[in-house]
Amino acid sequence: MSLGQQLAPHLPFLRRYARALTGSQGHGDAYVRATLEAIVDAPDQFPRDVDPRLGLYRTFHAIWSPANMEPDLIDEGVHQPEAIAQARLSRITPLSRQALLLTAMEGFTPEDTAYLIEAETAEVEALVNEALVEIERQTRADVLIIEDEPIIAMDIETIVRDLGHEVTGVAVTRDEAVALARAKRPGLVLADIQLADDSSGIDAVKDILAEFSVPVIFITAFPERLLTGERPEPTFLITKPFQRSTVKAAIAQALFFDSATVPA
């Protein structure tokens, strides 16, 4: 099997990680493209002594720079919230953000995460704890949940409230979601893809975003369909079935990049 064939199944999830890390589909996908170009240009430098997925993420980390998003790697039109987020990176150290996302969202072990960020395993655990402490200090938000499965909706609501956020409502259809958003503007939306009346959570979010800007986290059992890099796609994506830590990390990242307050 060629290296390309070995890496192909892991690309959607690298896009998910890159988008969450940078706060933007455009930025994240640009770094993934740069990673693939680096592998094509120097295949002999690709780590062959580890699992292909580990080697792929390790190559990505060799290219990604949290303090300097290179202009030639990024699509034109950097939006103001993204510029603000870049200025706020000092709120939580780059390594702690990487460690949290790699373990909670991508499911890497502390040992694998240590390899990816070139740290000791004990340091990874300390970095994750540092990130979680920072999350506890994060600004609270009003959250709209769009989910038609009652048990899943209740689980998400519990996680959201445990994090200190308020839930403005739980919608099970597109129309209900839009109505709830209009009734009380949320600071964050968590949306399932397929809703009760065969309407789409994506369409519901499009309707909401047409009226005002709000960060969105999509929830789906088929993440690969929304991580192709070929069209406008979600920046933040949670895979069903999900872990509490995954939802927590995704909410933290979405709100981090959405904040309009730049610390002095």
Describe, in plain words, how this protein is organized in 3D.
- α11 links the parallel β3 and β4.
- This protein is 52% helix and 9% strand.
- It is an alpha/beta fold and 264 residues long.
- 40% of the residues are buried.
- The N and C termini lie far apart (52 Å).
Could you say which overall geometry the principal axes of the C-alpha atoms support?
globular
Percent in helix? 40-55%
CATH level-four homologous superfamily name of the largest domain: Response regulator
**Percent strand:** 5-15%
Features:
alpha/beta, 5 strands, 5-stranded parallel β-sheet, 2 domains, Butyryl-CoA Dehydrogenase, subunit A, domain 3, Rossmann fold, 264 residues, 12 helices, CheY-like chemotaxis protein/DNA-directed RNA polymerase specialized sigma24 family protein, disordered C terminus, transcription, Sig_resp-reg_PhyR
